[in-house]
Each structure stands twice: as structure tokens, then as C-alpha cells.
């Protein structure tokens, strides 16, 4: 597969080595060495926690720019439901869509409609599922990557249904290609994204030539342009096609509400997600049928590439959902109009999700066991304060780095102080000693005596 692309980027000249990021990274992918943060690409999930927590703005996300629109004959914007939450409770979402057209897009296809499709497919999958135990939504790419890296035993629990972003891109290109009678390759579909993990998802899938979305532009990058146009934009506006429950996918709990799954669990915030996944890995929560897990607090409205406070964004989105009307017989129309029941395979995740053994100590099992024993020994010799001053998130992580040859025990400031104290005592003892030639009571006789 080659080297994994990561949208999260370190701006080294801004980094002060403060260690805030290493404390908040959910997969312990960051270390501080020589006064600068370093990101382990294998462990990184692009969740954006380091972007949120870095006061020095040394972490950023690589996204596509609007200049890429000129690369295609026809360009479609795929706005995430979270985009609507950024402009206040009274702003008509149709004006936001019109502003996207004014910016330079030729057409709009709401990702909220893709969420309606994903809802139908999820319900259909759960009806046919034979495996017992919770099924986990695969809509959040940061959670999927977290499972690949840290909880590979749970990969089989992921629901193999494309994300709303992918469903929207696939259907948008399909319809527009037929309408304009041009190849799909001439049509560009760009997701307006709330988080860096979705940028990574798009780039990695496009490397394999399997993804219907051509790029991802951050909400924060287009927010200013949209905000300037919304008050002045004139009708006609693009008409909303998605249901309120599809729009509701933009906040935590939206999937569960849309699918009406009773025995479900909703969790948001990457550290809370880890706690739940640990419970699932241990075989607990077996009475749960469905788990909706989102890496960002509040769901996509809390993404690292949004503008508003996530709680205000969630309030705005819920107000929009509450005042919108649910289309009658939505699932029936989706099934009839799109023939979704017979096209499940077309909206399945591609490529297959596989484990990424980023936490493996060694490829050789016997050496891995030996290293694990060495780690326990080193941990017992460290102070256990988990202060992070060594540049590793905690003492156990430092012990692992030492055994792997990535650090030394004196990277721990307390161990270094002990070494300095021992060295100082040795120097003091040496200072008290004099060479035999300088001693007054020399036992050797003088010449001639």
C-alpha cells in the first residue's frame, strides 16, 4: 500500500516542545525529541486532537484549495451537514448552498442525503446480520483508523456501509454523468469537511482509484467566503433534498435517531470512544445491537476544521432539524427510486478494512515477548509520575521507547538527576584524593639517605 498519507501536519518552527500534544494523542503517536514534536505515521489516526490542543498552532491539516475546481469540466460541492451549523440558527441552509454555487461550484449534492442512503443501508445490513454482539458504525474515519491501529479484533464488528460522504459522491457523479452525458472522470466532487480524518480517507482511497470523491476542502477555509455571501445572496436557491434526520447526522446521536435502533450506544470524543472500545474488546456490552462512535466531541459539529464552538454548533443544527419536516415514506422512496435493496454491494466500503499493527513490539513473537518483559523491568525502575517531561506521554511509553532503542533512561529528568547526583558524589570523592607525588607523608626515601 505504500506510505500512508496524513492530513495532520507539524509546523516545526512553531513547535516549542510543550508536550501538550503527547498528553492528548489517543494513540500515543507523538513524541517530543530535541525540543520538537514528532508524529509516528503508523499510529496517527488524523483525529485532530493535537490541532485542538496545541496553543502554539504548530499542528495544522493539509486540505484541498478552491483552485482545484478548475481541474474538472463540472464541479459538485458535497457539503457536510455540520456546515449548516456554522451560520446561526436563523440562516436558511438553502442560502448556504447558494453561496457555495457563488463561490465557484457548478452543482450541490448534500451529504445529508448520503446520510439518508447510509441510514437505509445500515438498517438493511442489521436486518441481515447473523453475527451476535454490537455492530459499530464506520461513518467516522478517525474511529475506523483507531480500530485498525489499536483494536484490530473489532474490525469484523464494523458495518461495511460507505460513509455518507462516499454515498453522496458516488450518486452525485452517477446522476450528473447521465444528465450531462460526460464521463465521470470529468466531474469533480469535493467534500466540505469538518475534520482532517476525512481528508486522509479521501486521499488514501484515491491512491487506490476506488473513491468517488476527488478532494476535501475544510469548512474553516470556505466559512469566510460563505459568511460574506449569505446576507446578500438572491433567489433562486438550490432546494434541500435531504431529510431532517439526514442533516441530524452532523451531531452525535444522529445516526441512532435516523435508524431508530433501540438497543444502541452513542459515544463521542476520542478518549470516550477508546473507553467503550476497550469494553467491547473484553466482550462486554453484548446486549447492545449498534454503536455510534464519533471521534469529535458533539460529533462532526465539533470537528477540528470547523469554526464555531461545538456546543453552539450542535444547538444550531438541532434547531435546524427541529424546524424541518420529515419527507413521508423516506425509506420506501429511497428503495424505489435508487433500488438500494439490490445495490448494497455498490455502497459497501472499498477497499476492505484491515489491521495496522502499529503497536506490535516485533514481528518475531519470541523477541516481542522478550521486549515486553524488558519493558516491565524498565517501568519498575522509572518513577511512575507520568509527567511527560521526557517527551513520551507516560513512563510506560518511555520504557517502550527505551527498549525499542528510541530513547534512553536518562531522558527521564528524575533518572538524569540521580545520575548527576551520583556523578557529583564521585567527583567530590576524587577531589579529596591527591596523587602520591603530592602527598606530604611520602613513604619513599630521599636520595642519599
Question: How would you sum up this structure, described in words?
Answer:
Helices cover 41% and strands 10% of the residues. It has helices spanning 20-24, 49-53, 81-84, 93-103, 111-128, 141-150, 164-180, 196-207, 219-229, 244-247, 254-259, 270-281, 310-323, 330-338, 365-381, 395-403, 413-432, and strands spanning 8-10, 30-33, 36-39, 59-61, 74-79, 107-108, 135-136, 187-193, 215-218, 264-268, 290-294. The N and C termini lie far apart (88 Å). The model has no long low-confidence stretch (mean pLDDT 89).
Low-pLDDT regions: none
Beta-strand residue fraction: 5-15%
What level of helicity do the residues show?
Answer: 40-55%
Would you report the number of β strands?
11
**Gap between N and C termini, in Å?**
88 Å
Going by helix content, strand content and strand pairing, the class is alpha/beta
Task: Determine the number of helices (DSSP H or I, runs of at least 4 residues).
Answer: 17
Return the string of H and E elements: EHEEHEEHHEHEHHEHEHHHEHEHHHHH
Give the helices and strands, then pairings.
Blueprint: E1 8-10, H1 20-24, E2 30-33, E3 36-39, H2 49-53, E4 59-61, E5 74-79, H3 81-84, H4 93-103, E6 107-108, H5 111-128, E7 135-136, H6 141-150, H7 164-180, E8 187-193, H8 196-207, E9 215-218, H9 219-229, H10 244-247, H11 254-259, E10 264-268, H12 270-281, E11 290-294, H13 310-323, H14 330-338, H15 365-381, H16 395-403, H17 413-432
Helix pairs in contact: 4-9, 5-7, 6-12, 15-16
